[in-house]
Specification:
The complex is a heterodimer of chains A (90) and B (672).
Chain A lengths: L1 H7 L4 E3 H7 L4 H13 L3 E3 L37 E5 L3
Antiparallel strand pairs in A: 2-3
Helix pairs in contact in A: 2-3
Chain B lengths: L3 E8 L5 H9 L3 E5 L6 E9 L2 E7 L11 H11 L5 E7 L3 H4 L1 H6 L6 E6 L1 H6 L3 E2 L1 H8 L3 E3 L9 H13 L6 H7 L5 H7 L10 H9 L3 H10 L2 H13 L3 H16 L3 E2 L9 H6 L5 H15 L1 H16 L1 H10 L4 H38 L1 H8 L1 H6 L7 H7 L3 H7 L6 H11 L5 H15 L3 H27 L8 E4 L8 H34 L9 H15 L4 H9 L4 H11 L7 H10 L5 H8 L2 H12 L5 H11 L2 H29 L1
Parallel strand pairs in B: 1-4, 1-5, 5-6, 6-8
Antiparallel strand pairs in B: 2-3, 3-4, 7-9
Helix pairs in contact in B: 8-13, 9-10, 15-18, 16-18, 17-18, 18-24, 18-26, 18-29, 21-22, 22-33, 23-25, 24-25, 24-29, 24-32, 26-29, 27-28, 28-29, 28-32, 30-31, 32-34, 33-34
Classes of the chains: A alpha+beta (90), B alpha/beta (672).
Bound molecules: guanosine-5'-diphosphate (GDP).
Chain lengths: 90, 672
Amino acid sequence: MEELLTLLGDGHARTIEHLAMELDTSIEDVERKIEFLEHAGRIRRVVFCRGGCNGCSGCSTKGSDGVMCKGCMPENGFQNMGVMWEVCKA
Amino acid sequence: MSQSATIALLGQPNSGKSTLFNALTGLRQHVGNWPGKTVEKKEGSFSHAGKEYLVADLPGSYSLSANSDEEVITRDYIASGKADVVCILADSSQLQRSLYMLADFAGIDAPCFLLLNMADVAKDQGKQIDAEAIEQKLGIPVIPFSATDTKAYGGFYEALDRALTKKARLNVEALSGQYDSVKGFREICSLIPEGAIAGYSPMWIAVKVIENDKVVLDRLRNAVDAETFGRIEQAKKDAQSAVETGGCKFAWIDEVLGSAVTKESKKVSLGRLDRIYTSRVWGKAAVIFTVLFGLIASFIPALPLMGVGSVILMAKAPVGNALTSIGCPEVITLIVTDVIIQSFSYIFKMLGFVFGVTLVFGLLEEVGIMARISYVFDNTMGKLGLQGKSVMPFLVSFGCTMGGAAGARVIDNWGQKVLTIALAWAVPCGAAWATIPMLSSIFFGPGAIVVITAILFTMLLHMWVTAKIFGSRLVKKEERYGMIMELPPYHKPRWRALFGYVMGRTKETFIRVTKVVLMVCGLFWILSYSPSGGNGGILYRIGVAIEPVTKFFGMPWQLFLSYVASAVGKEGAIGVISALYNGGSYGAAFTQAMSGGGTAANLSEILLANVSRPEALAFIFAMTFNMPCVVALAATYQETHSAKWTARIVLYYTVVSLLLAFAAYHIGLLIW
Ligand SMILES: Nc1nc2c(ncn2[C@@H]2O[C@H](COP(=O)(O)OP(=O)(O)O)[C@@H](O)[C@H]2O)c(=O)[nH]1
């Protein structure tokens, strides 16, 4: 798992497939390590505030999110954007 | 009943614990709380083969660390010996992953057995699992199982019985061997006396010490003498961390599974599309090409609605004549034809593009290409001084700048956040993508494609320059932290959902655009209306007065006012154009155009007769790169908490948009 973190140390983004290829392992192995590192607080899932996420955790201004204009930003837009994790600052 | 035994169910969330618990106990269960905690406690009972069993469903969690109350409750319950046997559930369809719980449990002193649950799912996946081989290595009963198949619980009762009679303990030798490779483990382990914390082996405690488990450390402090504890703490300082012990657990799992799980393992490889999209060399070009192609393709679904817009316009003359013939006052007639019908013609043309753009980009998102874009531009973000996740706010800004500003919240560094918002302003929003193609197609016909391409590249350049200008003040050269992305698999679009989404958005846009356009158009029409029919109207006088200045940026005064209105909302610009270039009487050129076709004169023709192509180009650039809208402005202030920076950004965008207009005008003059 150190190899995984070392690899990410260069600051680049990688997909799970790329990681699996670079570490010469399986997708499942990378996935379980991501799960572990997330629980261990070494990486963090990036949660985006979309319009209308009323008072979701991580929003700096709670309650005022519902005002996004729906015509611009439909509620069910940007759902299929995958998941991102970032390495936490040491 | 002669005997009874207590079973504790242990497993990660979704391992099937509740299913098993319910199947075993049926109605004989009750729910309470663990003493002093708000964690739910589920207990129940059942009898089998003349024996009474109590079942405790332990709170599900990822592992047995001190991360949450659940996990501490669970491990303490098991270690207390209150349960005669622990039934551990793992998910057969992903054993590598779900056996982590077993690995974290290893070292707690309790009889146990392992259910490889979801055996049916694993079978469907084509996996063959040799439970006996695993049993050999673990030293506890191991069986394939399906909690949902309640008629086939025979194996469960048999394994339960075996575990109870043999008091089966997990064989942890191999795991301990793995831990030996962790720096500091042996030393810490040797310092911990057997039974220091009841129910936990020194190996387990040592691992938790390395993992910096606060609960264990506190108990250990009380359990050993101060000197020993000091030495443990000293050894801990030099020891490795949870990442290494976690790695050992995974390595042990792989060792246990060994050849027991067979599945034709395919080598990881990228699909053909991903080889292009995620390529360091071709990715960006592929993405830009895709977006450009998408914008152009948006014209196709836009055509029918644009047709509706033109049809509406044709109603202008008959409606005007009809109203006049029934003796309707001229003002009313003009309001109906010039304000309402005119505006709706524009609105439908804009809706055409909103529909087209939403459909095409919704489709790109559905099939999974949008997600690739954020991956491709990660590195570029770094060059702009931003973290990779800033891509998301930018993408959202294509829909709504305000959404982009709100999305920038994920960026914890204030400077980077402000820079992200400042750059997001350069991304033309949904309303701009409705007005740009419409105006471009009026003035440039098929050449609109070139204009759109130019806008897209100007946007990229704008963002680059803006990052250079603001970047030095906002972001310090900072280390970049890597990122992992799970890209959604490519899949066929679900057309129904997609159309629902597209129609929803088109409807919402219709409502909003109608409000803004009618309001702005009405207001400007009143301001420019002059009953005498001459060159009256306040606006006309103001307009002529400022024209020398606005002409410098390549815009006649009407377009300049329209540019100003676009700061309220891009669709506001259309309202102004609609009001100022229609039936009202302005200069001579206009009257000439009118004398030919009367009120029925085609609006596009009037525009073409009054506005030259370089002027139109200047206006399109000015409007596109003007500040997005007042709401986005408010959002920017709200997110940055800085009036100074918000003002700076506004001023900067105003200046740059006028400069771009100036440049576009002069380039236009060279061409036409
Ligand atoms: N196919 C299949 N599904 C199962 C099996 N066991 C549980 N499930 C399903 O997996 C999901 C999670 O199960 P649940 O008992 O709620 O898990 P818990 O979170 O551990 O309590 C439910 O939808 C169950 O129906 C199984 O053996 N086979």
